Amino acid sequence: MMALIVMSSYGNSLRNFSLSDYAGRTLQAACRALLGVKSTLLLAVVLTAFAAFTLTAPYSAAQRVELSVDASKSGAKIDRNIFGQFAEHLGHGVYEGIWVGPDSKIPNTRGIRNDVVAALKAIKVPNVRWPGGCFADEYHWRNGIGSPRVVTLNPNWGGVIDPNTFGTHEFMDFIDQIGSQAYVSVNVGSGTPKEAADWLEYMTTAQPTTLEKERVANGHSAPYKIAYLGLGNESWDCGGNMTPDYYLSQMKIYTRFVRNFNPAQQDKQQMLKIAVGPGGDGPRWTEWTETIMKAYQQHTWSWDINGLSLHSYTVVHGFPPSYASVGFGETEYAQVLKSTLDMDGLIANHSAIMDKYDAAKKVALIVDEWGGWYAPLPGSNPGFLVQQNSLRDAILAALNLNIFARHADRVRGANIAQMINVLQAMILTDKEKMILTPTYYVYKMYVPFQDATFVPVKFDAGSYRHGDVTLPRVDAIAAKDTNGKLWLEITNLDPNQAVEVEASLDGINAQSAVGETLTALQVDSVNTFDAPNTVEPKTISAKIQGGKLSLKLEPKSVTVVSVVP
Length: 565
Ligand code: AHR
What we know:
Blueprint: H1 2-10, H2 22-35, H3 37-56, E1 63-70, E2 84-86, E3 108-109, E4 112-113, H4 114-122, E5 127-130, E6 152-154, E7 160-162, H5 168-178, E8 181-186, H6 193-204, H7 210-217, E9 228-231, H8 244-257, E10 272-275, H9 283-297, E11 307-314, H10 330-340, H11 342-357, E12 364-372, H12 391-406, E13 411-416, E14 427-430, E15 433-436, H13 438-445, E16 453-455, E17 457-459, E18 463-466, E19 469-472, E20 474-480, E21 486-492, E22 499-506, E23 512-518, E24 538-545, E25 548-553, E26 557-564
Parallel strand pairs: 1-22, 2-5, 2-13, 5-8, 8-9, 9-10, 10-11, 11-12, 12-13
Antiparallel strand pairs: 1-17, 3-4, 6-7, 14-15, 16-20, 18-19, 20-21, 21-26, 22-25, 23-24, 23-26, 24-25
The structure holds alpha-L-arabinofuranose (AHR).
């Protein structure tokens, strides 16, 4: 009888049911109150048996979704820089996450931990944004060079001490070790154009100036390359509470005087200057984008920008974030994914403004802070923004990367916040231990999409409903990599039902397909230091017959397949 009650209340979510679910726990508590201890024990046995059955039984009623891919058609290049990372001096993002110092027992190369470097190399990080964030507008680069280092405070993030042992040279060494590029943000909020100009001269000149000699004396004779230069951070808020017009006048001065002198970056590989852009949707942000882009349209030889940033975190019900990063159920899963899909409209709206003033799309939209932001883990320093990273975050990441790919003509860079131990991280560390998060695995699976050419996919996404939330059941993108191989990514958002995909593949003589899928038992499944392999990609096989690819997607999964001609 109890089993019947359970079946009728969980009939739509059999695969997702387990005794650790909130609903299961609530039901147990209610029965305990009604029936007493003995009956509760009996109930637990029945529920356990039932859960074991539902977790191993074959899926019923998988949904069918048809996709059509025409590989002879192509769109914009998916700039590999949309897979960029962000490392701020915040909590254990830099100190412990990257930097342990040369004397640490944790294996390191010149103070930078080897396990983290190896993991990041595997996801081919195209660029790392540093030193912030809010931190950037209080960072004074001279504190982080030479010896001894000036010890400062980090008032934004817990008021802790920053020893400045990780400074310019250490960041550049780290970038070099992981095979990435530098995205350096200069201090517009509390610094001066002269301070930023000096920093750039120190880093990039090959001429024997005093600053060059100082860099050489500090151990680096060759000029450094800077791929991106951030002109402040959130100057409308933590970066100085500026109005759009005030920021514009400051930004013009910085673009005029903060120069990259690296001889290798004059004609080719020029440093891209990124102005602070909007932080959301609505009149305040429309005005910001309008102000910068209108000025850009009339810009003269003396100033220029190559990108406008956009910051948007997934925070249901706004700040301070209240949703937990672990130990949640389907309701929070559905709400977070609904909220994250707003990224599409946000990009579309700001792109439309940019199109008015820059039809040629010379200025890129760089989403250089995004990701899921939840309540700090209980017991952690709230200023350190520590959260777990679940299967939900993997799906959230895939949905956003797909949005960026669909806007590849304008979105040519993005930096998830943040790389290690902070917010939606790739990596979590605890002293000498390191784990890879579900989001890390999404980035690994998406490596073939770096610099691939977008291929349009048509599909009827269907819908998945939970409570008052309706979401597309599936999402998908396709692209041809630099060797011409076709790749498909398909996300099944539905946590309860599998999806049978049939994809017609035109413009390619498909013979077979191989791929990987990422899923787990529950929407809030995480990797922990005790169980680091709970959420990991598994190989899947797909069938190709008569030019059609068929594939079964697990509920709540991210799948990437390549088509072999
Ligand atoms: O990523 C954390 C913070 O979020 C950044 O420092 C800031 O730019 C944003 O508000």
